[in-house]
Design a protein that fits this description.
mainly alpha, two-stranded antiparallel sheet, 12 helices, peptidoglycan synthesis
């Protein structure tokens, strides 16, 4: 009887050890599966991210020019493959776009985390993924290397490419790339094409009011091409934004008070 009683604790211990070994095995298996899944996700994530060595300005500009030529086929672009240097863009046009699209462009490191946090919070609340809060650097990264899909993975890829661009290029180089690949209307890409199409002018001849108008189009180029350009029907909110851009330019000393008062009365007229 004593032997039988003494064997019960031993049997319980053996069963316990067997259960624990199974738990450890399953835990280890799940951990390895998780590691493998994360590795595959990271591999796919980094597949589209260009190497730092490929992000010199001449290489990126060549890549951007190739994109422009491809886009110009069956499009409204009149200057196919033409590249506009930053020095050939009127200062008022430059700052109208920067102040409208990314007022802290020359100060941040590529990503506006405060604005990004707000967008992510809204996405969590609505349980839907909506892009937004993208800086000029991020939009340049997207236009050059990514598609228009909206997902967490694509946003993460955009941020990673942005960091590499910011680490390799100057702010002026990023801005030049942005102005040459950004969309201003249906199949209408690049600042030179936009200035020709909307004003029959070169980027060097665009004033602050015209620059603010182009900045409005950039927010939703296809939608506002229809309302602002084709129907010449700007909503009160859009007109207030146009005034705000000019007011901020005057506040920062980019235009004087006389110019500001003159541009406040500006209204778009299609070129003859």
């Amino acid at each position: 009887m004593l032997l039988i009683k003494s064997s019960k604790p031993g049997q319980i211990l053996i069963k316990f050890l067997r259960v624990m070994s199974r738990i450890v095995f399953l835990s280890g298996l799940l951990a390895w599966i998780a590691i493998l899944a994360l590795s595959l996700y990271a591999y796919q994530l980094f597949q589209v991210i260009p190497a730092k060595e490929a992000l010199g300005f001449p290489q990126v500009r060549s890549h951007a020019q190739t994109i422009n030529i491809t886009r110009s086929i069956n499009s409204q672009q009149s200057n196919q493959g033409q590249w506009t240097h930053l020095k050939d863009v009127n200062r008022d046009l430059l700052y109208a776009i920067v102040l409208s699209e990314d007022s802290t462009f020359f100060n941040h490191k590529g990503v506006n985390y405060d604005a990004l946090a707000i967008v992510i919070t809204d996405n969590i609340k609505t349980r839907e993924w909506h892009s937004g809060a993208s800086t000029i650097s991020q939009r340049t990264a997207k236009n050059l290397y990514l598609n228009n899909s909206q997902s967490f993975s694509r946003k993460l890829q955009e941020i990673l490419i942005t960091y590499r661009l910011e680490d390799t290029l100057t702010k002026n180089e990023i801005l030049e790339l942005f102005l040459n690949v950004v969309e201003f209307g249906p199949e209408l890409y690049g600042i030179a094409n936009a200035c020709t199409y909307y004003f029959n002018k070169s980027p060097a001849d665009i004033n602050a009011a015209e620059g603010a108008y182009l900045a409005l189009l950039m927010h939703s180029p296809r939608k506002y091409h229809y309302t602002l350009f084709q129907n010449n029907n700007g909503s009160p909110a859009l007109m207030k934004k146009h005034q705000r851009i000019l007011r901020e330019m005057q506040f920062k000393g980019l235009i004087n008070i006389s110019q500001y008062n003159h541009y406040k009365e500006w209204r778009y007229e299609k070129p003859q």
